[in-house]
Amino acid sequence: MPNHQRNYRAILERNVGFDGNTRWLRYARRNGFKEVKAERVRRCPDCGGRPKRKSWGQYVYFSTLIHLLECSRCGLVWSDARIDPGLVRRQFEVMYNGERYFRFSRRRIFGHLARVIDDLAPRGAHVLDIGGARGDLMAHLVERRPDLYVVVNDVSASGTKAATERFGFPTITGGAQALDEHERRYDIVVLSDVLYFEPDIRRLWSALDKLVAPGGKVIIRVPHRWALIRLWQRWFRATRSRARQRLQHAIRFFNPGHIFILRKDYLETRLRQLGFQRLRVMPSPLLAHAGTRVIDAVAFAVAVVIYWVTGGACALTPSVVVVGADRQI
Ligand SMILES: [Zn+2]
Question: Which of 9, 27, 35, 209 is the most exposed place for a label (fewest CB within 10 A)?
């Protein structure tokens, strides 16, 4: 047996998900699989419930075969393998060094979120941005509202260091555990595109319980593509042979870097448990891509009109902003 083939066999034995199955050999070789450490997640990371029998689908990420499982109890959808955190962290550090990502791609999203926070924040309010990276969103916010006191949190030390150096913001470095141990309370806590990256989501909810002041608000931005994912997956299963389905390596409309799909019902239940009396789900602008600026702006404007016409019942953008307000504890 040639050496390179033997290596791929060994990788398929060791890496999570493949169970040494040689039907993946060609794919592994073509995609230059590497040995990757990962842990299988068999129970719901939030409530500990069992998954429904049928997975939402499977995909390959970091040479690991991962399934999307749905909790039969709380409805959370999770990826059933955790890639070595060191590997994932390095990828984040690279992303944070991409100035363009923050300056250009996310500018519209930050602008929109800053307006939402501005509307909700009382004078002199304390605002915590969880997963706030280099502080760009908070910089947008204090430009509109210099009266607000803002704190930036991130797992990335280089992110929070940049937030302090660039804007002078106080910071908290670390994930759910650091937040859970933090003593202060805030009038507004923002989680923009971060909830689906936190492996210990249960602890993050418990941290939120301590972080949000009575009467306070939480603002969460998440993707809103689960119906599309399910629809495409149904189509995939109806039109592909069994053999082809067993070799599924991507789930359309799902970003393999995310470890959760957070559906509206799951979020609403969780926020009600935390005592938020008023909930809203609003359309959010798209990431900007060169050349699609006008189309994106028009699509967002249409989504906003539909949102208002349906009395706030229908948010059609690929991402939404969920607001929990009037917290009673
Ligand atoms: Zn669960």
Answer: 35
CA 264 to chain CA mean position, Å: 13
Q: 204-242 burial, b for 16+ CB within 10 Å, e for fewer?
A: bbebbeebbbeebbbbbbbbbbbeebbebbeebeeeeee
Q: CA–CA separation, 11 vs 168, rounded Å?
A: 47
Domain that holds residue 112: 94-223+262-280+321-327
CA of 224 to the centre of ligand 1 (A): 19
Q: How far apart are the CA of 45 and the centre of ligand 1, in A?
A: 7
The answer to whether residue 5 scores a pLDDT higher than 90 is no
pTM: 0.90
CA of 269 to the centre of ligand 1 (A): 12
Same domain, 99 and 200: yes
Same domain, 59 and 195: no
The verdict on residue 114 lying in a domain is: yes
72 lies in a domain?
yes
pLDDT digits (tens, 9 = 90+) for 103-127: 567 888 899 999 999 999 999 999 9
**Residue 314 belongs to some domain of the structure:** no
Query: What's the pLDDT at 285?
Result: 83
> Do residue 275 and residue 126 come from a single domain?
yes
Residue 61 pLDDT > 70: yes
Residue 60 has pLDDT above 90, yes or no: yes
What pLDDT was estimated at residue 106? 81
